[in-house]
Amino acid sequence: MLRRLILSRNNTFINCRYASQSMVQTTVDEKSGIATVTMNKSPVNSLNLEFLDEIKTELNKLEKDKVKGMMLTSGLQKIFSAGLDITEFYNPNPDRLSKFWSTLQDTWLTLYKTPFPTAAIINGHSPAGGCLFAMSCDYRIMVGPKYTIGLNETKLGIVAPKWFIDTMVAVIGQRKAEISLTTGKMYTTDEALHIGLIDESVPDVNTALTQGNLFLNNFQRISPWAYKMTKDITRQSTVQWLIDNKQKDLDFVVTYLQSAEVQKSLGLYLQSLKK
Ligand SMILES: CC/C=C\CC/C=C/CC(=O)SCCNC(=O)CCNC(=O)[C@H](O)C(C)(C)COP(=O)(O)OP(=O)(O)OC[C@H]1O[C@@H](n2cnc3c(N)ncnc32)[C@H](O)[C@@H]1OP(=O)(O)O
């Protein structure tokens, strides 16, 4: 692991941590203690086993380093994250599929439960798992107007797991989540703002980062303990469901994803992407 100090946009030193060949880059502003975690897995930040593992490791490191906040963003031009890597569950190796899904569960739990405040800087398209990660942050700022966000699983002929659904319900409420999920709708930035799926729409990524810092800096005046307890209580039922049902969720997903019908839908969807 390499570390170096670089000068940030506002002339404070930031502490960078790079792993060689890393798909995740992190900088920490020494003055504010706010980290920026940049996902950088070409071409679309699709979340495969190794990438998820790296994101989880990075989040755990930030917790250990006691950062004051974290912004999650993408280093790619027009994609925040294309969601789960479909090649992990199309014609899968069953052992790897199990490992992949367990790692997704753990990464999501780590992100959803961080003891520090988080903001998603959504600087590109954010379907499915990308939307899940954005929704798991405390605040969402999206660069408009060209990109889209949503849980589009039904469009792939698959079903969003209960904890994806509960995460969306927590952000936009039962009724809007039901419509979003059943139709697999991808929202434009304006539409996402209108239904409360994002908190701010901004014209460019620099403004998004400024606004993200502004949001996270609010917590300098809040007791970290009060913050964490409040977040834990608010998110408790969704988190506890997955903790209590990890194996059941895994068994169901592994069986379901390998069914002939789902494999057929996924094959057709992948083909349409290649076109
Ligand atoms: C009970 C529950 C059980 C299971 C639940 C499973 C839950 C799954 C949740 C998910 O996250 S599923 C993934 C859903 N994601 C998508 O539907 C996104 C699909 N991708 C796109 O819409 C577009 O690629 C994009 C808008 C993200 C980017 O568009 P563009 O810049 O035009 O790039 P390309 O479409 O040309 O894609 C480049 C390259 O990347 C491949 N790719 C795209 N997305 C994925 C992906 N999610 N997984 C794997 N690979 C992906 C695409 O096929 C292209 O590959 P080439 O080989 O043709 O270069």
TrEMBL record:
Pathway: Lipid metabolism; fatty acid beta-oxidation. One of its GO terms (biological process) is fatty acid beta-oxidation. It catalyses: (2E)-tetradecenoyl-CoA = (3Z)-tetradecenoyl-CoA; (3Z)-dodecenoyl-CoA = (2E)-dodecenoyl-CoA; (3Z)-decenoyl-CoA = (2E)-decenoyl-CoA; (3Z)-octenoyl-CoA = (2E)-octenoyl-CoA. One of its GO terms (molecular function) is delta(3)-delta(2)-enoyl-CoA isomerase activity. Keywords: Acetylation, Fatty acid metabolism, Isomerase, Lipid metabolism, Mitochondrion, Transit peptide. Gene3D superfamilies: 2-enoyl-CoA Hydratase, Chain A, domain 1 (3.90.226.10), 6.10.250.170. CDD domains: crotonase-like (cd06558). Homotrimer. This is Enoyl-CoA delta isomerase 1, mitochondrial.
